Amino acid sequence: MNILIVEDEMKIRQGLRRIVEDVIPSGLHIAEAGNGREALEWLRMQDRVDLVITDIRMGEINGIELIKRAKESHPATPFVIISGYDEFEYAREALRYGVCDYLLKPIERVELAGVLQKISDQRLASQQAGSDESKEAGQPDDKDRLIIRRVKELVGQHLSQDISLPFLAERVYLHPKYLSDMFKRATGQNLSDFVTERRMDKARKLLRETTLKVAEVAVICGFANHKYFASLFKMQTGCTPTEYRDQK
């Protein structure tokens, strides 16, 4: 991922960088800018930018103006803004420009990690969907198969949240019972089991590739209770999360 961090306070900028590197330790390029002007200069030289994390209040060009100008050349780039409690009006204005998330200072490590994972998952799901569409170009597509693929994308994008059957059914405009039966027919697997499987896959990946604590991994993967997560992990893998990490 090609990520830009825009923040005029060096300590905060470096702290953000360390968290990003913990969550996405490989295939990562991070650039830093001390204000909006530097950020725009860097963006002009980039063909593809996967994420911009920016403060709102900065000298020369503030975060709102940066987003407005950057969207002209990089309309698909996701932005995450950082704001203080007294900057709600700025944050609300930023949301009008398609900002995908915002974080309040002081930045919480788990919260930022969750946002990064969500954006990373969405990026991978989008790439996978594009790959699938390329393979199926020119062929008539089955409506149920498209719905199942969309459901799988939604699960991948919302793993840190409470993914219930009504939540998914509402987003594909189906009755929950109908969606549940359709998913089981098409995949041979219960939808709830699929969600748990994806969460465990993500947990194993985070344990292998990051230094996040087990409790932090649990939250990012959608488990509010880290003890339940550890118990379920051991049931499925035969070892605790800590033992799994040590083995890898």
Summarize the structure.
The protein has 248 residues and is α/β, with parallel strands linked by helices.
Explain how this protein is built:
The structure is a single chain. The chain is α/β, with parallel strands linked by helices and 248 residues long. Helix content is 60%, strand content 10%. It is built from 12 helices and 5 strands. It has a 5-stranded parallel beta sheet, sandwiched between helices. The protein is globular and about 55 Å long. The model is unreliable at 134-141 (pLDDT under 50).
Ends: how far apart? 24 Å
Placed side by side, the strands forming the largest sheet appear as: 2-1-3-4-5
Q: Helix/strand/pairing class, anyone?
A: alpha/beta
Radius of gyration: 20 Å
Number of helices: 12
The biggest beta sheet, please? 5 strands, parallel
The residue fraction in helices comes out at 55-70%
Average pLDDT metric: 84
Strand content: 5-15%
According to DSSP, the number of beta strands is: 5
Poorly predicted parts: 134-141
